[in-house]
UniProtKB/TrEMBL annotation:
Protein's UniProt name: NACHT domain-containing protein
Gene3D superfamilies in UniProt: P-loop containing nucleotide triphosphate hydrolases (3.40.50.300)
InterPro entries: NACHT_NTPase, NPHP3-like_N, P-loop_NTPase
PROSITE patterns: NACHT (PS50837)
Lineage, uppermost ranks: Eukaryota, Fungi, Dikarya, Basidiomycota, Agaricomycotina
Keywords: Repeat
SUPFAM superfamilies named in the record: P-loop containing nucleoside triphosphate hydrolases
Organism whose genome encodes this protein: Ephemerocybe angulata
């Protein structure tokens, strides 16, 4: 090929190529003809030319394998760029802000999600009618206060009420968004999740436009604090909407946020923030006083002290406050619920006596519930699903010791938990440790499939042998590889965490739980042959290792806390670990600097016993860490310590 002009370029680079095209370092670029002719790319010695200048159409590919480059039919003025190699990273197009918003939230907390459908119950028909009526009247009265705080003791039915209200509002096209808090979902998920739901409403198209534009401008808004998130995601976009584009219908919409006290008291980075519950309530109450914010807000939760103080002072008289106490007659609703469930049982067990269970036993069960709906629900589950006949199961519950008093309001509920944890016949002990650890970090948000394998044999045995476990937590269906275990009620964890409530046979301290999980951690690191049995194919292996890698920062932090002055594991255990394999897992599966922090923490923990020279265990680990960091192009840890000279 030839042209009127020939220019030679070296070390040329093409940048800002469209998404999906590789960045190339080009050598010996040859231009034939005018400068405005098309450009073709030839990579190394591959027999193709790809036209790269017309980015609005699919790149044109010319096959050179048959005719050779000298015979290729190229337009006049064509430029051929011969690339020596491809750079590994790809040019990434800007991420769609809606997609980024969707990926930043935990969808299982949203109203209507399949996860909530399986774990959060509605109020039983014809119960809690009075409080529901008050809340719906508040939601529909244009002159009522725009913030409602629904509180009450643990197990009083707040979440069932919130879910029932959200469903009623949704049916009447009044629900703006619904969010149900959980201990394993950080509070930083709340505002993005509400924003995501709001912009799905076709009445809020102007907000959708402004909100996505705001997200595009504020790249890191998802990681901000509650007040900043609320401003960037909702308030600022609302203020940008011209008055003529605002819809009066917006003032009918209600945001429902349930279980605010269950949000972990930490920010998006995991740092402890003890005032986060009050911050959420305060931020939304302030929002309802902003002229640009048209929505009503219903927040429910336990009456934790910071929130009580807030409504006694700064929030005084600014919200409608509803407390679920005796004035709402919970005993009457619980009695109705229990009678309804016994009627269902009699229909399913036609051989039972028509007089069973009898008035006295029903009223005794109501008294034991003492206003706690969680007790009534759990008791009726126990009666229906136990190994023995319902009559025997009922007598078992009524015979449990545990008298509810003002000083011990959960005594009957605690006795029922102890009965379930001890097994149907009282001769087997369900591993309460297992229940406690899956309800805490770092396992509570991880897939049940991973937990079963990580805690083997305790995990699988607990689920298979003790059917009573299904009364305490949601167990994902067989074949579900992503859903976590989820406690049906926070009172289960309250019971296991409180030494004054929990049966001594089941209580374990936080330190004991950490030690238990660290032994499982060590098992994965050192027992190569047994480790292979934790998965049956490559997909299961990858899923297991992704979850396992995410736990490492937690475990190494615990090691430093439990053993600040010496190494935690025995030297022979450290020496038995497959560190090269472990480093590959971390560097290939942890991202955004987490892999560097984890390996530094690991090195600090294993190096803790070293004096003038490093121990054999330290050298074993340090050599693998150093190799891995060099391979993955990170600086090795400990450059200024004795470990460098000891290797």
């Amino acid at each position: 090929m030839s042209g009127p002009e020939t220019d030679y370029f070296t070390n040329a680079k093409y940048i800002n190529l469209e998404h999906g095209m590789k960045v190339v370092t080009a050598r010996d670029s040859h231009r034939h003809g005018p400068e405005d002719g098309p450009v073709y790319l030839q990579i190394a010695d591959k027999p193709t030319l790809v036209q790269v200048t017309d980015l609005n159409n699919n790149p044109r590919v010319i096959d050179l394998s048959a005719e050779g480059i000298s015979n290729a039919q190229l337009p006049p003025g064509a430029t051929i760029v011969k690339a020596e190699k491809l750079v590994e990273n790809e040019v990434q197009a800007p991420v769609n802000p809606l997609k980024r918003l969707s990926e930043s939230i935990v969808h299982s907390a949203l109203f209507g999600s399949a996860a909530l459908h399986g774990t959060v119950e509605l109020c039983h028909p014809n119960t809690r009618m009075e409080v529901q009526s008050i809340i719906m009247a508040w939601a529909t009265n244009p002159y009522s206060k725009r913030f409602l705080w629904l509180s009450g003791p643990a197990a009083s039915g707040k979440t069932a009420i919130s879910m029932s209200i959200a469903k009623a509002l949704s049916k009447g096209h009044r629900l703006g968004a619904g969010y149900f808090c959980s201990p394993h979902i950080r509070s930083s998920n709340l505002i993005p999740a509400l924003a995501y739901q709001l912009i799905q409403d076709p009445r809020l198209v102007p907000l959708r436009h402004e909100l996505l534009g705001s997200l595009d401008r504020h790249t890191y808004a998802v990681a901000d604090g509650i007040e900043v998130q609320l401003e960037k995601f909702i308030l600022d976009p609302l203020r940008r909407i011209p008055e003529g584009h605002r819809n009066p219908e917006w003032r009918r919409l209600v945001l429902v946020i349930d279980g605010i006290d269950e949000c972990p008291q930490e920010d998006s980075a995991g740092y402890h923030v003890p005032s986060v519950h009050k911050m959420i309530v305060s931020a939304f109450l302030a929002a309802t006083e902003d002229p640009a914010f048209p929505f009503r807000v219903l927040i429910s939760g336990r009456p934790v002290v910071p929130i009580q103080r807030f409504f006694a002072k700064a929030g005084k008289d600014k919200a409608l406050e509803i407390f679920l106490d005796e004035k709402f007659h919970p005993d009457a609703d619980i009695e109705f619920y229990i009678r309804s469930k016994f009627a269902e049982l009699l229909a399913d067990f036609p051989d039972s006596s028509r007089d069973w269970p009898g008035e006295e036993k029903i009223l005794t069960l109501v008294r034991k519930a003492s206003g706690l709906f969680a007790y009534a629900v759990l008791a009726m589950w126990f009666i229906r699903h136990g190994k023995r006949l319902p009559s025997a199961q009922l007598d078992c519950i009524l015979g449990l010791r545990g008298v509810t008093t003002e000083d011990h309001p959960f005594a009957a509920l605690d006795a029922l938990y102890a009965k379930i944890l001890s097994g149907e016949d009282g001769d087997a002990v369900l591993p309460a440790m297992w229940v406690a650890v899956i309800a805490s970090e770092p396992l509570q948000s991880l897939p049940a499939q991973f937990i079963d394998r990580f805690l083997e044999p305790e995990g699988l045995d607990a689920v298979r042998i003790f059917p009573g476990l299904a009364s305490l937590l949601r167990i994902p269906e067989s074949g579900d590889k992503s859903s976590p275990y989820k406690l049906y009620h926070q009172t289960v964890k309250d019971y296991l965490d409180d030494p004054n409530r929990c049966d001594p046979s089941f209580y374990t301290t936080p330190t004991q739980r950490k030690e238990y999980l660290l032994q499982r951690y060590l098992f994965v690191l050192k027992d190569q042959e047994a480790r292979q049995g934790l998965w049956t194919n490559d997909q299961e292996r990858d899923q297991f290792l992704d979850s396992f890698a995410s736990t490492v920062p937690h475990f190494e932090t615990w090691i430093s806390e439990l053993s600040p002055d010496k190494v935690y594991f025995k030297p022979e255990d450290y020496l038995a670990c497959d560190v090269d394999w472990f480093m590959r897992v971390l560097f290939e599966r942890l991202k955004d600097g987490a892999e560097v922090g984890a390996t530094q923490a690991i090195y600090d923990n294993v190096h803790r016993d070293c004096q003038q020279l490093c121990t054999p265990a330290c050298r074993h680990w340090r050599s693998s860490i150093t190799r891995a960091r060099r391979e993955y192009r990170y600086e090795a840890p400990g450059n200024d310590c004795t470990c460098c000279t000891a290797l």
